[in-house]
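TA notes, week 10

Several of you asked for a full example with nothing omitted. So below is the full record: structure tokens for the whole chain, then the designed sequence directly under it. When grading your own attempts, check the secondary structure regions first.
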């Protein structure tokens, strides 16, 4: 997977891609074994991946909120539970991640050097232009998902198609019940 991490609502886990750990080790010129043997290096790794956990736990919070508010549209789709995936979810997650990193960097200017280059770049964009910068920057990466409006339009289109199909079945049942 290309993602640096992911939230899985089916088993309620947040996972970090080992690619991040490999990047951390390469950046620090250490092996994974050396990292695991050092409490200080493990703390450095925690700092390095913390923005990613903020991003993924934002997705966890989104899942919990949508479910608690009756927006669990996919609960009958093969047992998977989730709201429709929308660009706004990624925008919020990247913005929370970037705000977290920006807040840390304001307190400690060296912080951006302790996290991954992509998280540092997101924080810098956020500090310059806020959420709009994040949305503009990340939108091309997620061109396959709808905006909130696009998602709503897709849901309405599917509901309309289902209603048309149901009406045709009702008409068929009325005119030729044996054909059903």
């Amino acid at each position: 997977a290309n993602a640096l991490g992911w939230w899985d609502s089916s088993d309620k886990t947040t996972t970090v891609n080992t690619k991040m750990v490999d990047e951390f080790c390469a950046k620090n010129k250490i092996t994974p074994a050396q990292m695991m043997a050092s409490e200080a290096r493990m703390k450095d790794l925690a700092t390095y991946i913390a923005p990613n956990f903020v991003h993924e736990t934002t997705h966890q919070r989104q899942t919990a909120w949508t479910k608690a508010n009756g927006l669990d549209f996919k609960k009958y789709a093969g047992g998977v539970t989730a709201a429709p995936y929308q660009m706004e979810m990624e925008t919020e997650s990247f913005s929370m991640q970037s705000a977290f990193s920006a807040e840390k960097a304001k307190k400690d200017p060296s912080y951006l050097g302790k996290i991954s280059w992509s998280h540092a770049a997101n924080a810098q964009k956020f500090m310059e232009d806020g959420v709009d910068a994040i949305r503009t920057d990340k939108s091309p990466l997620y061109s396959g998902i709808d905006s909130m409006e696009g998602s709503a339009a897709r849901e309405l289109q599917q509901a309309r198609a289902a209603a048309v199909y149901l009406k045709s079945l009702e008409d068929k049942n009325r005119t030729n019940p044996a054909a059903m």
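The CA atoms of residues 125 and 137 lie 9 Å apart. Use that as a sanity check on your answer.
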